[in-house]
Design goal:
4 copies of one chain form a homotetramer. Chain A is of the alpha+beta class. The first copy, chain A, has 3 helices and 7 strands. In chain A, β5 and β6 form a beta hairpin.
Chain lengths: 136, 136, 136, 136
């Protein structure tokens, strides 16, 4: 598979729960971290965007858990595809364990941009991300 | 809407992120807490189940975020319906803000039961949950 | 021991780590939640305070871990004493397991109030909390 | 200051709370991650140790918060000194922001080793860590 973006991470032991593997909610953190790091590449600091009144908010997340991950395991979070659908950006993302290239989780994350409390479609995202995005 | 189960909670301030509202991943925690408390009603302690070799694992989660929640807000997490589909239990859940009854998030969570590492469909769940479950 | 404030909680399974018991960092969350709920009693909503430019910030935390807690266990977080030392409020807090009254953790938390970025000692806290505080 | 170990990290946006800066409890995570990565250097995988019945447990943590950190900021977590005191290893650690070398937090963390539920002082730690430890 081709990836638009690859971000390497490593399971932190506290992210595992009493079942011994990474708690499901933490995958959402992993996907979020990778999206924010992806935006950094295009000059967008998420934290600064928020302060300036532009919020990228998650409208929907659909995660399929394939293989559990355990303490200290290295993995990559990828962005495989970005679709545009109305005011939504739809990120297709994966978590892949590094040691054996096993797919651990797949996500489809719908992100909306909210400018000063109103849904909108800021041109500068479209312009910046244009080359990597599939239009609707 | 009728609910099978209702669990009251309250936003903890540390669950909010720099955008000022509850971080998306925490909703997954909320839904999980409510499912575990639901099982307690039927005599199943999740923590003990895990130690005994029976793991309930989330195979898929589909969450729609409707309205953000803020620090200290009270809410309920509900279980609205449980479907059975092969070895999966599909939980339909909601997060509803208490003060104005606003729907903040909806989830569909596919849970599989894994006994000693193997997918299975333990009779005692089916028996215990029988009356609240919709069969496939 | 006499407590100024008692807040009942219950271990959430995701708060346990791969060692099977509550991860140490979560105790800090528990102590924080109890302090914020304590302030609510006196009419202070932490979240609103922050938005209004008044931040209560933790300057130092000293936690002694006595007995581990496990998934789903009920407990109380207490405030046992509040001392005033210059611009600091020093909270003495405990985590006590409900089922057997065992002390699980003790904390001393130094809290400073910062108004619009400057350390200060807001009179309304002193006035409100006056009766429960030990002066320096 | 000389450091025994330096581990580079970066603030993840979800680690910030509604006050806009990193929530205090997350520093405990940072310090833990660095200790575990430190042990990896000496051939100890924390996750495997736990499964084998050897638990390193935190008996006490004393953290001084000096300067808040914000979303996406890079920092290092260091181990500055390790003392041995009876069955305890006392880790002195710091969090230092990378961009301006500002000290953000300092910690003293007392770690005990528990073998199959009993406090003990495993020789292999002492042997492995011998050269970097100050004896009591």
């Amino acid at each position: 598979m081709n990836h638009i973006f690859i971000y390497p991470m490593k399971v932190r032991d506290y992210e595992c729960d009493a079942q011994g593997h990474v708690n499901n909610a933490n995958y959402q953190h992993y996907f979020e971290v990778a999206r924010h790091e992806f935006f950094v590449q295009y000059g967008f600091n998420f934290f600064d965007l928020t302060k300036s009144g532009l919020n990228l908010v998650v409208a929907r997340v659909d995660i399929r858990y394939k293989t559990p991950m355990y303490g200290s395991e290295p993995f990559v979070v990828t962005i495989d595809k970005i679709e545009k659908k109305g005011v939504l950006y739809i990120f297709h993302q994966s978590v892949i364990r590094t040691t054996d290239n096993v797919l651990c989780a797949k996500a489809k994350v719908d992100v909306a941009s909210v400018v000063n409390g109103k849904l909108s479609r800021p041109d500068f995202f479209d312009n910046a991300l244009g080359e990597v995005m599939n239009n609707d």
